[in-house]
Amino acid sequence: MPVDVLAVAAHPDDIELACAGTLLRLKASGRRFGIVDLTRGEMGTRGTPESRAAEAGKAAEVLGAEFRENLGLTDGGLERNRESELALIALIRREKPRIVLTSYPDDRHPDHRRAGELVTDAAFYAGLRKIETAHAAHRPQQILYFSTATMQPPTFVVDVTPFMEKRREAIRAFSSQFHDPSSAEPETVLSQKTFLEMVEARARHFGFLIGVEFGEGFVSKRPPRVDDPIAAFEGLEPGF
Ligand SMILES: [Zn+2]
Question: How far does the centroid of ligand 1 lie from the alpha carbon of residue 14, in Å?
Fold first, then answer.
């Protein structure tokens, strides 16, 4: 059974930090989604590939993903080569997503940038019949990009207010990465208490843009169709 959405990112936890609320919202409306981590995060300062795999599994359970897979590509040097493209093409064809969520291909972390480019290219190539893999050609309808460190003005924002508590739970599943006063591992940007506060503030800012408490913003190369422009702006602070 195909998934509606495939969320793909370089490192386990990238998806949770950027779009867990949207995945929860999709799930609540009966949509099916899968998560693909391109690397095992083996270059991360804290945690081990094993502990991160366990954390990723726990987060996927909280989110209600149909599956979560790891392609085992190189962390801290993710490559856009044919082998990686073919692995992604095979996965996209197998799962037949209509929408793909991934990192905006411009970011402070080169792996995030490369992930965005790799996923974009693979999603297009997946539609070329003459590239032979186990499953028939399939091209997703659209790729939606989320920002990580470098903020991009969103094309649209998803209201995730009712899903924030679950979103926090999914993020907290990656306990090795984030603030933990009892941890003896080296401090990183992510492990500072202020990091998760920033992540939350970002969701508040996206929410502010659409007149709700919390939101997640996405960039799309094509604008989404809006059936009711009046309803689309309802509840926003009047102003232009
Ligand atoms: Zn990352």
Answer: 5
Predicted confidence (pLDDT) per residue in 180-228, tens digit: 888 888 888 888 889 999 999 999 999 999 999 999 999 999 999 999 9
Cα 24 off chain centre by: 12
User: 92, 123 in Cβ contact below 8 A?
Assistant: yes
3-state secondary structure 4-58: CEEEEECCCCHHHHHHHHHHHHHHHCCCCEEEEEEECCCCCCCCCHHHHHHHHHH
Measured CA to CA in angstroms, residue 13 lies from 10, 52, 54, 194, 211 at distances of 9, 9, 12, 17, 27
Cα(36) to ligand 1 centroid in Å equals 13
Per-residue tokens: 160: 């995730």
Q: Which residues of 1-13 are buried (b: 16+ CB within 10 A; e: fewer)?
A: eebbbbbbbbbbb
Reported pTM: 0.95
Q: From ligand 1's centre to the CA of 44, what distance in Å? A: 9
Could you tell me the distance, in angstroms and rounded to a whole number, from the CA of residue 182 to the centre of ligand 1? 23
Cα(10) to centroid(ligand 1), Å:
6
Secondary-structure breakdown of the chain: helix, strand, coil percentages, each rounded to the nearest 5: 40, 15, 45
Say if strands 99-103 and 5-9 run parallel, antiparallel, or are unpaired. parallel
